[in-house]
Amino acid sequence: MRRFLTPAASAAALAALALAQGGAASLSSLGNFFFGPKLVRAEVVTSEGGVLHDYRVDRGHIRALAPGSLTLLEKDGTTVTVPVASTANVTLGGATVPLTRLRRGFVATTVRDGAASASIVVATRR
């Protein structure tokens, strides 16, 4: 069974972690700490209008591309194949591109809600 912290407890835990890491306990520093260049993967659970969303964030080097999916090699050596929605917002270096513009070796971060296909793909050329 998963246990979730209350928002106040979560904020306190994140602030304590940021301080323990020697950083200022601000929202931007927490975002940079967790979603900066050290990110391997993350699970973020939010509540929007009473509906829970369980977002999965994966980051890694693109190992393979297929119609509607990317295979990523994450920093810890895990390989994950991520389905990508045909309507996904795909960016490369900040510009919107079709998924077919991505190449093996590029670094990609994908975001998907639960078992759904990724709706966001952010890629860079290493």
What report would you give on this structure?
The protein is α+β, with helices and mostly antiparallel strands and 126 residues long. 18% of the residues lie in helices and 47% in strands. It is built from 2 helices and 7 strands. A 5-stranded mixed barrel has the order 2-3-4-7-6. A hairpin with a 4-residue loop joins β6 and β7. The N and C termini lie far apart (38 Å). The model has no long low-confidence stretch (mean pLDDT 85).
Secondary structure: elements and pairs:
Elements: H1 7-20, H2 27-35, E1 41-48, E2 51-66, E3 69-73, E4 79-92, E5 95-96, E6 107-113, E7 118-124
Parallel strand pairs: 4-7
Antiparallel strand pairs: 1-2, 2-3, 2-6, 3-4, 4-5, 6-7
Summarize the structure.
This protein has 126 residues and is of the alpha+beta class. The protein is 18% helix and 47% strand.
The DSSP helix count reads: 2
Helical fraction equals 10-25%
Rg, rounded, reads 16 Å
Taking the sheet with the most strands, its summary is:
5 strands, mixed, barrel
| Beta content | over 45%
Nearest-integer average pLDDT:
85
Encode the helix/strand succession as letters.
HHEEEEEEE
Tally the beta strands.
7
The low-confidence parts are none
How far apart lie the N and C ends?
38 Å
Instruction: Describe the global form.
Output: globular
| Class by alpha and beta content | alpha+beta
Spatial order of the strands forming the largest sheet: 2-3-4-7-6
Note the main attributes of this structure.
single chain; 126 residues; alpha+beta; 5-stranded mixed beta barrel; globular
